[in-house]
Inverse folding.
């Protein structure tokens, strides 16, 4: 059996409710003292993708982060809140993200430190399958313990973002683009995420699934109420339980498919020890998965190009585009130009990574599936 994964009902973001549910979720898997020792510097790594308000369900909710800060402080640890949001890792951008997501308030109320260090540290990873070394944020390398705080959301490229995908945020700023360019196939990108997981090795992952996001996640979908918190030292098992909880096919999620290929999970909830509230008591229905599908590694280049052109959802700007250029700056293959203050994508160059869709502050990029893809899906 893998896990254990704790599953705890948490219907609202009201502070006392979240505090009690977080404590219960962690107590069920040994208590915070099992993961944090007095004096340790503990990085709390929420999903802080964009400067967005808690009710938009893009970032990990501040009530969850605050509850974990309190637990870490009780254990004698020094909590530091940090992430590298989409876009360049710069202080003004961090300030905007911290402020809008509610992290500034968490820090003020609890005394937790916010990370402002934008430096990079090179780490080797001899055991990595695809990556033998990588640059991560210095604030990550300085931590004695990492606690990952993912948000349950759909994801255009990976189809689901949870404990595994959340760790992509340790790659600083626009360096993330290089990974998209280097691993354009979702199978390999998902496998690469496992290398980040095995390098960073968070002691604990605690997922905010109180209100997740379905549809066109991770930023342009809709808030979706689930009413759960999940916690585990095993981020892969946690993702299997969370994805199954919302009715997703685990084998359609690229990082989990890679984990299955590596023998790290069977992908079945039945093979995971779940503690806490009964899995069957959560009745989640109507969770919409993203309408994206990418060419597979196994295809020839020619077939892959055909599939990409005729079946895979492609990005396109809509009338909400204000010509801000964020998508241009974050496209790993320079497939976007501004024409008369509106983003235009060169779909022959585009590798369908959906970074533009993810990072557009105006929700001005739609993912449009070609007619053949719609017909066959
Ligand atoms: S599509 Fe979005 S990110 Fe790109 S220029 Fe338009 S508003 Fe900015
Ligand atoms: S246009 Fe958008 S989806 Fe295509 S490669 Fe650039 S960022 Fe990725």
């Amino acid at each position: 059996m893998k896990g254990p994964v704790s599953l705890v009902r948490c219907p609202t973001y009201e502070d006392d409710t979240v505090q009690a549910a977080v404590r219960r979720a962690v107590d069920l898997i040994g208590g915070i003292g099992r993961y944090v020792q007095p004096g340790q510097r503990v990085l709390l790594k929420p999903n802080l993708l964009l400067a967005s308000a808690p009710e938009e369900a893009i970032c990990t909710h501040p009530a969850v982060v605050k509850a974990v800060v309190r637990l870490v402080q009780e254990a004698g640890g020094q909590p530091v809140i940090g992430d590298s949001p989409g876009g360049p890792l710069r202080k003004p951008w961090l300030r905007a993200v911290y402020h809008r997501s509610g992290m500034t308030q968490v820090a003020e109320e609890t005394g937790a430190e916010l990370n402002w260090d934008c430096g990079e540290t090179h780490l080797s990873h001899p055991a990595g399958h695809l990556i033998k070394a990588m640059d991560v944020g210095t604030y990550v390398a300085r931590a004695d313990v990492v606690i990952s705080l993912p948000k349950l959301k759909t994801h255009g490229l990976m189809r689901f973002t949870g404990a595994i995908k959340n760790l992509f945020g340790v790659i600083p700023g626009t360096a993330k683009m290089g990974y998209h360019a280097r691993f354009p196939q979702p199978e390999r990108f998902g496998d690469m995420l496992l290398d980040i997981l095995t390098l960073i090795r968070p002691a604990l992952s605690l997922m905010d699934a109180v209100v997740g996001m379905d549809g066109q996640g991770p930023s342009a979908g809709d808030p979706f109420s689930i009413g759960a918190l999940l916690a585990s030292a095993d981020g892969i098992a946690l993702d299997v339980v969370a994805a199954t909880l919302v009715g997703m096919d685990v084998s359609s999620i690229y990082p989990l498919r890679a984990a299955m290929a590596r023998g790290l999970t069977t992908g079945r909830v039945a093979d995971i020890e779940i503690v806490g509230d009964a899995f069957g008591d959560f009745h989640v229905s109507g969770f919409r998965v993203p309408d994206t599908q990418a060419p597979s590694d196994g295809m020839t280049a020619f077939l892959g190009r055909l599939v990409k052109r005729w079946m895979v959802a492609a990005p396109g700007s809509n009338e909400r585009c204000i010509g801000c250029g964020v998508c241009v700056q974050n496209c790993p293959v320079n497939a976007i130009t501004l024409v008369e203050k509106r983003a235009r994508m060169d779909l022959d160059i585009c590798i369908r990574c959906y970074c533009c869709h993810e990072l557009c502050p105006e929700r001005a990029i739609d993912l449009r599936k070609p007619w053949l893809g719609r017909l066959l899906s």
Summary: The first strand starts at residue 2 and ends at 9. Residues 315, 331-333, 335-336, 345, 350-356 surround iron/sulfur cluster (ligand 2) (CB under 6 Å). Residues 186-200 form the longest helix (15 residues).
